Amino acid sequence: MAADSSLRHDSPAERSRWATRVLYREHRNDPVPAWLIFPIIYAFLFLTHIPLLRLPYFWDEAGYYIPAAFDFFRTGTLIPFSTLTNAHPPLPAIYLALWWKISGFVPTVTRLAVCLVAAFGLTGFFLLVRRLMNDSVAAATTLLTALYPVWFTQTTLAQADIFAAAATLWALNFAIHEAPDTRQGWLAALWFSIAALCKETAIAMPLALCAWHVWEIRRKPEQARDHRRTALQFLTPVLPLAAWYAYHFAKTGHIFGNPQYVRYNAVGTLHVIRFVLALGERLMQVTFYMNLFVPVLCMVAAMFLPALEDEPGVKRPRVSWNAQAQIGILLLANVLLFSVLGGALLARYLLPLYPLILLLCVSTWRRRVRQWGWLVALSGVAFLLALFINPPYRFAPEDNLTYRSMIVLQQRGIAELLRVAPGGVVLTAWPTTDELRKPELGYVKRPVRVVAIDNFSLPQVERAMALRDYDAALIFSTKYQIVRLPNWLRLGDSAWNEKYFGQYHDLPPELIARLLQGDRVWQASSRGLWAAVLLFSRPQMAEVLHAAGTATAEADSQRE
Q1: pTM
Q2: Per-residue DSSP letters for 117-147?
Q3: Is 321 within 8 Å of 178 (Cβ atoms)?
Q4: Could you give the CA distance from residue 192 to residue 196 in angstroms, rounded to a whole number?
Q5: Residues 237, 329: one domain?
Q6: Which residue positions in the chain have pLDDT lower than 50?
Q7: 224 and 283 part of one domain
Q8: Domain coverage including residue 534
Q9: Which residues pair with 520 in a beta bridge?
Q10: How many domains is the chain partitioned into structurally?
Q11: Same structural domain for residues 136 and 266?
């Protein structure tokens, strides 16, 4: 055999083919250069989000994050004054204001800047997965994360969650190791501090890992000193967050924002029954939500299969038990925390968890399923379907592309409102109240006078009936309306939502028009959402609207 091998290698053609196979095998196993990963991810996010880049600001963007950043952009103040301060840390506002200073204050600049943050976060996650597994698992997991509906929509929305998630993923890249490392620990602490200064709840991540290392002190006495040092490192992100709250208190007299915000998101949530119900909702969001059940069920099924062998007696590697335990601690801590905090059970609060869940899924497939790429494709198709098809349960419009439909409906409704009632006083609810008052949000060119109610439920419509000091109304569904389905499919749509989570039901537009005695001059619907414009016949209203329309036309002609 040795002689045959020697003769084969002595042949120039055989030597060339043998060298080619060796070089190909070595090249195939070379890791993708780190400097290539970010531009590839950013290009993918940019191309897939092109239709969303010009949209005006939406919901909490319009209600808090953009006004806060705009206040800093204009005056340099870290405490917003054009909206109620919620004591959210200031890094997102500073970042957005910097981009506006460079490129101009337009929604497209904002969305591209947020997309940049999302790509940066996914780059850190790719490096984490590559270190724990390999390039193929890292690429598949990063792709699925980018396609998962909650991540996909948050990629261009200027809300603090995507900023905190991006910094957290970079922190985890340095934090999750087999053994404590001083340099890696300080880098992780730095990124955890940045995450906490993007959104305060991000502090849960380093505190959870601190608890893990405290536990390891008892479990591994021989490494007690190293784990103690790392635990202290993961406590340090508390310091810059505490400094921010001290500054906020000195400026406003409130530590955690205005009392109404604190009561809704922290104090009013402290109820045992609510906690149990919220915990069930959170568990659903990390196992089932927006077709996440597809990769999760595939992972559970794959766990019943034996591990594959790349070579006889050598099983494919898994994510180490140590890393899996740390990921498990992070998942548990965040699910518990956000079952207590947060008046609304928004899935975006769990944004850093979805990449970790998908990591566990993809690494399991790769270890136990030979054709695991098909499971990646199946999960990707499931996520794409969830982006476009609404589920049979209550969800926030921003968790898939329904948010775009809501923006377009509001744009069309405002355009019709300005056509039929220029200069009139408009009855509407938040966030459209801000969209009409603040031209910087991208919906109107000049402020519109409004009369505000909270929503379009029966009590609020009855309140509007008593006001009568408006000329028109822009009414809309403030929440996704679940389509008509059998009761057993209407998941989560039950009476306890109203009692413990402040859920309500908007009246249909025809009933609102009848109660307010207004004429519906425009109505449209899309993806379970609707909007309508009402016009009211009041004495002297025609003269007022005519005069306002004439003044608007003259102003427009002078500007041209």
Answers
A1: 0.88
A2: HHHHHHHHHHHHHHHHS-HHHHHHHHHHHHH
A3: no
A4: 6
A5: yes
A6: 1-10, 12-13, 15-28, 488-491, 540-545, 547-548, 551-552, 555, 557-560
A7: yes
A8: 399-559
A9: 534
A10: 2
A11: yes
